[in-house]
Amino acid sequence: MSLVFVTGHTQYAAQAFKLDAIDYLVKPVTEESVRKAMSKIKRARALSLINTGEAEVIIIKNSYEIYFIRQNDIIFIERSQRKSIFHTIKGKYYTNEALNAIAKRLGGKFFRCHKSFIINTEMVEKCIPIAERIYEIVFYDYKYRVTTNRKKLEELYNMRKGNNPN
Q1: The dihedral of CA 107, 55, 53, 149: what is its sign?
Q2: DSSP codes of every residue in 31-95
Q3: Enclosing H/E stretch for 163
Q4: Quick check: 44 and 1 in contact, CB under 8 A?
Q5: Which helix (H) or strand (E) holds 3?
Q6: Is 111:155 a contact under the CB 8 Å cutoff?
Q7: What string of pLDDT tens digits covers the 166 residues of the chain?
Q8: Nearest to 78 by CA among 125, 128, 114, 131
Q9: Cα 73 to Cα 108: distance, rounded to the nearest angstrom
Q10: CB under 8 Å to 115, separation ≥6 — which residues?
């Protein structure tokens, strides 16, 4: 819930913000101040969705740009050389944000299969054994692959089995 106070009393502003008000508008209210308050509400709602992992879009930034990436477009996320790399159907995007922080913002179809990888389970085509207890995860129409161990593979299998009606 977003709370905006509209009042003629300036002395209660501090108390309003203690109640987590988005804005405090003092009468007479201008159209511009209402527009700014609405913008703050929209921004707060978007951040709330992102922080709970419910948003269809995840926002990442690097030193120069901010990207709005659709979660359905993410194939996997890799941690390499102190950077997180989003492998998507549209290309790669880099950020300094740690995988743990990213994982908290993603939806339920994502799985941490390795300390360096988070995968979109809906993009997995198959898993191939490559060594004793080591498996390679192959994605639909994507040349890069990630590795996982037997325990994580079983977790992935059980997770997908629970989401598969067949």
Answers
A1: positive
A2: HHHHHHHHHHHHHHHHHHHHHTT--SEEEEE-SS-EEEEEGGGEEEEEEETTEEEEEETTEEEEE
A3: helix 150-163
A4: no
A5: none
A6: yes
A7: 788 989 999 998 888 888 888 889 999 999 999 988 888 887 777 666 555 555 689 999 988 899 999 999 999 999 999 999 999 999 999 999 999 999 999 988 999 999 999 999 999 999 999 999 999 999 999 999 999 999 999 999 998 887 655 4
A8: 114
A9: 15
A10: 79, 99
Q: CA nearest 81: which of 66, 69, 96, 65?
A: 96
Amino acid at 48: S
- CA distance linking residue 136 with residue 129, whole number of Å: 6
> Does pTM top 0.85 for this prediction?
no
- Looking at residue 106, what is its pLDDT? 92
Q: Extract the tokens encoding 19.
A: 């109640």
- Give me the residue label for tokens 């339920």: 108
DSSP 8-state assignment for residue 18 = H
Tally: H helices and E strands in the chain? 4, 12
Beta partners for residue 148, in sequence order: 135
